[in-house]
Every structure is written in structure tokens, then in C-alpha cells.
Amino acid sequence: MKLLRLTEPERRWAHAAFGAIFPAVPELDMPSIVSLGLDAFLDDFAASTPAKTMLGVRVGVAMVALSPPFVLARFCTIAGLSDAERDELVARLAASGFNPARQLLLVLKATGALLYGAAPEVRARLLAQQPLVGLTRKPQRAA
How many CB atoms are located within 10 Å of the residue 26 CB? Predict the structure, then answer.
């Protein structure tokens, strides 16, 4: 539905917000979510999900985008922040005592994970990783 699609300012904010949540990690050869076709994904997401779901994404994007004056004491939107400042903003929102801020950030993380986890280059890289913890069976003691 055309009314559910993000506007151009919302798209800029979404790129900055999702990019801060799912940044590129060069040392692990992981791409940024922005390079995985974020605009097409958001259009498909808007067309295939209920209006209330897309409303939650839009409110989440707006909340993250407009929070720098309140969280970082910077009078700008998320698009006007450096990568380090965006990371700090997302970290502070995640640790906030204000539950709606944490929940809206979680909505964005869950939405972005649908794209990020499904991307072939990300899946291939994740499947190639060794487990972080080796599982071993403990010997059983006789009772």
C-alpha cells in the first residue's frame, strides 16, 4: 500500500538507524545492512505486513531519528551524527529506563534482522564461523 511506504526523510533516518543497529564489521567481513537493499526490503515489508506493524516501524524510525537532542544533547537528527555518535545513541536508547524507547528499538532490531539474517552473504559468513563455545559432554558419575 502506497500510504505505508516511508517518505524520503524517513528513508534517510531509516538508513542511519538501521545502519547503526547493523553496521559493517570489516574484521569479520560482515556488510552493513544498508548495502543489502534496505530500501527494497522496507518497500516489500510495508506491502506485506499489517498496517499496525508498519506503523510501529515508522514510529521506531522517527523515535531514533529525533532522539539526539534528548539523548546526546545534539540538536540534529540521527542523519546528522557521525557513525560513533550513532552507535552511542543506539547504545543509550537500548539501556534507557524509558520502556517505550527500548521497545521501539527492539522493533527496529527485529525488523532489520529479517533482512540481515536472510542475506546470502551474511548467512554464508555466519555459517562459516566456528562456534564460540565448544560443547563437551561431562563424564557421568556412578550413583
Answer: 8
In one letter, which amino acid is 24?
Answer: A
- Determine contact, residues 58/6, Cβ cutoff 8 Å: yes
Strand partners, 30: 25
- Domain boundaries defined on the chain: 2-128
86-137 pLDDT, tens digit per residue, is 999 999 999 999 999 999 999 999 999 999 999 998 888 877 766 655 556 6
pTM score, two decimals? 0.85
Non-local (6+) Cβ contacts of 56 within 8 A are 104, 107
Grid cell for residue 88 = 552511542
For residue 57, the 8-state DSSP code is: H
| Residue 3 clears pLDDT 60, i.e. is over it | no
**For 18-41, what is the HEC assignment?**
HHHHCCCEHHHCECCHHHHCHHHH
